Amino acid sequence: MSTTPLRPAMVPVSRRMRAYFAPLDRNSGTPAMFDPSKHAAGFQLDAPPAPWVDLGWVENVQRSNLTTGTPLTAGPRGVAVGQFRGPLQARVEFEFREWGKLQMALANGSEQMNVLASDPNADAQASGGNAVAAIAVLGGSTASEIVLGMGAVDSFNAGDLVAVDVDYQQQTGYVGNGISAAYVNDPVDVNRDANYVRRVTFNVGRVAQKTATSLVLAQALLGGAPVTGSGAQKVLGFVDREMGGFFQDWSGMLVAEEDSGGRIYFYYPHLSPVSAASEEAKVEIAGGITALALKASFLAMGHRDENDGQMVICYRSYFPATMAGVY
């Protein structure tokens, strides 16, 4: 009888993959960092550390490394004696099973717009007509509580969506508090609309309850606390458009949660959509009932690793289950 001990389980088992995204600093190109030496043990899937945002379960994940190796040959017969890598290129595709503002923005790839409550007498517009005037946000507001003052809160009810950001004041470049939501080349392009920043901002929340002077949000605003000069407007929904000149740029991570065995992280420092076109997939539930999933496809951009200067596009981290074999 063999006395060789049984080999500990080394097979990660996971039923689904979960997606997390964090904003990339558009001005500096700095990605949101996932440091496996610090984050892995404390990365709670239901309460990820800032700035990571939980976007729910994803399906049909396909990771494609399109980088090729080119042989280096020598001698009269051209024998391969080494190789070097060609241009780095990789893609990742999956389907969001949940719909929300950020999921729609990432799947579509271009500007993602808030449908602001509009003036009943305004001309109809495909992405929303002339909006009802914003209400000034007062000092003392936080990312979770928006102070409007006595009486002003009456314009909102529990359950409403609210966009909180500054007036558009003819500025050019990236706009959006905390997260770049669009790029303006010329004020004429956006019709000098005072509400344009709030039309595109990611600083949107759901009103959970009201106090006498403030709105308490169900989730903290993604872009952070309102800055001086911000206004609040009611949002009815979200609309994206096929094509457009703006590209979303985010850091992304896919996590294979351990049902049995270890956990795996796929960290992409910089993801940019390969196109600006919406696409949906039908997912059959039962008896002819189907759900619509958002298809997303990204180009993985390069990142210089600080430890050795190598240019990389994705980090795959594996954390073995307790007592699992190392190799």
Protein architecture, described:
The protein is mainly beta and 327 residues long. Helix content is 5%, strand content 40%. It has three helices and 21 strands. It has helices at 36-39, 101-108, 196-200, and strands spanning 17-23, 53-65, 69-74, 79-85, 90-96, 112-116, 135-136, 145-147, 161-166, 173-175, 182-184, 204-210, 214-217, 230-240, 250-256, 263-273, 280-286, 289-300, 303-304, 311-312, 315-319. The strands form five sheets. Strands 6, 7, 8, 9, 12, 13 and 14 form a seven-stranded antiparallel beta sheet that branches. The chain has a six-stranded antiparallel β-barrel with strand order 1-2-5-18-16-15. Strands 3-4 form a two-stranded antiparallel ribbon. The longest helix is centred in the first third of the chain and has 8 residues, at 101-108.
Rg (C-alpha, Å): 24 Å
SSE order in H/E notation?
A: EHEEEEHEEEEEEHEEEEEEEEEE
Percent in helix: under 10%
The helix/strand class is mainly beta
Q: Helix segment count?
A: 3
Detail the poorly predicted runs.
Answer: none
Q: Oligomerization state of this entry?
A: single chain
Overall average pLDDT: 87
The total of beta strands comes to: 21
Distance between the termini: 25 Å
Sum up the overall morphology in one term: globular
Report the biggest beta sheet as strand number plus sense, adding barrel if it closes: 7 strands, antiparallel
